[in-house]
Amino acid sequence: MTPLGVPVSDLAKVAVASLVGTSSREHLHRTHPPQTAFFIARKIYAILTHPLRKFPGPFLCGISNAPYSYWFNGGRRDFIIKDLHEKYGPVVRIAPDELSFATPQSFRDIYGFRTAPHSTFPKSRFYDGSAFSSYGVHGIITARDPAEHAQMRRHLSHAFSERALREQEGLVAEIVDEFVKIVGNMGAEGKVVDFEWWLRCCMFDVTGSLAFGRGFDALKNGGQHPSLKFVVEAMKQLSLIDTMTRFPYLGKVFALFFARKLLKLLRGSAMHEEFALSIVRERIANPTTRPDILTRLQENLPPNTRLPDIQLATHVCEILIAGSDTSNTTMGTVFNYVLRDPSLYSRLTTTIRSHFSSYDKINALEAAKVEMLRSIIQESMRILPPVPGALNRLVPEGGDTVDGFFVPGGTYVTTQPLATALSPLYFDEPMKFKPERWERSSKGKDILEASQPFSLGPRGCLGQNLAWMEMNTILCKVFWKLDLELVNTDMDLHRDSKLDSLWDKPPLLIKVSERRD
Ligand code: HEM
């Protein structure tokens, strides 16, 4: 398997098929007219009697996965689905077996814990494939079996507890200080800093330090670590893998066309897996009390047991992706909107600079008290949900209801975060950045549960307290110490971002200088 679920053997099969000609199945399809007519009649019958036929949506989506794959590969899937919700309403059929919802209640029904007579929806096959999946090992994010996942989550929760968080603060602060110093120095040299890239390096180092027990020196060497390159590349290929899952036969042809890309991914994946395993093994051979996630994952196990090396390595690889890109996207959105609004920028810097009498006094506990910053972060996660909408779930056998609609078993369902969080049904002037809607005193008409950046229920974000700690600390330190000015003001985050499984954002060019006041 590739890291993302494409069986390696498929690549070989495609190569063989291309040498020996069409497969027997393809030969069957070069059929006599009556067989062709029968095939078409069967297809039409299946379309007319499909259990999802009553759900609204574009006609083509009801008969083929092609529109969905086309949108996904074009990088604008979620924006298109958002438009479809505006046209068709709260539920849209986006593929033959797939429904998209855009309501707060659907978040609860699809992702939440449900009690009898309902049942909790498991993750779908679109989660198959991650680092080490070729060994049959799943991590906390890709485990689909609810019982297997529940056991993992109980164990991993310990690594994200309040106590663990307090102990992790020092490790985070070390890297944040390095980040502030590096961007400050670049600014002093007269360079414009691409915060999109440097925040990515910073979060990769922070999450690497916590999950792998060491940073990746991405800040020191400008993101040259092969694992960072691989992760960035792999996240951009998920639409391709999704397409291959939807079109298993066409997928083989695709594999031929994209053989180079896939082989590069395979090589990158093998290196990343090797690297993760070597770190885990090194750690096991040299036990330490360093208070990171890797240490915590080796605790709280039944006596005389330990997690297999590969299982540990799978968890840390998945945590690396879950924890780095999400926080980096959120902070990029904060900088983008705050720096465009001089009054907001001035109020925020004044608040932070008066809250802390010196840079050294900035810590997670105090940073969490800056309420204005909290509202700004919440609004940033609403206006650009850091995890876009492929959090696919499978309706269990027998079917169930989602926001009052009965959905047959076997249907794939999602709540589309962008469509929900940018809907005028739930937010007043949804395209406007208005942090005040999150303030406790706000009497706005907004329905805040329509923004669920961390998802909810049994698979909701396990690292959200850690994420808050990281983001509060970084943003307080940067706004306290540096003056910032957005350079590429013509950039539009919604217009210029693409998405695959996560966001592919445009550069965020910022002039940085030591604060003048
Ligand atoms: C702004 C920052 C973050 C956001 C918006 C975010 C969002 C999410 C979302 C939406 C999910 C659900 C994914 C799904 O259903 O497939 C998730 C899961 C998860 N996140 Fe986060 N996340 C953030 C930061 C972090 C951090 C910093 C970590 C750890 C270093 C982390 C660790 C996890 C883990 C382990 C899961 C899997 C939980 C499970 O399945 O039991 N996240 N996150």
UniProtKB/TrEMBL annotation:
MF-aspect GO terms: heme binding; iron ion binding; monooxygenase activity; oxidoreductase activity, acting on paired donors, with incorporation or reduction of molecular oxygen
Cofactors named for this entry: heme
Source domain of life: Eukaryota
Sequence positions that bind heme: 461
Pfam families: p450
InterPro entries: Cyt_P450 (IPR001128), Cyt_P450_CS (IPR017972), Cyt_P450_E_grp-I (IPR002401), Cyt_P450_sf (IPR036396), Cytochrome_P450_monoxygenase (IPR050121)
Keyword list, A-Z: Heme, Iron, Metal-binding, Monooxygenase, Oxidoreductase
Gene3D superfamilies: Cytochrome P450 (1.10.630.10)
SUPFAM superfamilies: Cytochrome P450
Membership in a protein family: Belongs to the cytochrome P450 family.
Name of the protein this chain belongs to: Cytochrome P450
Source organism of this protein record: Polyplosphaeria fusca
Source taxonomy: Eukaryota, Fungi, Dikarya, Ascomycota, Pezizomycotina
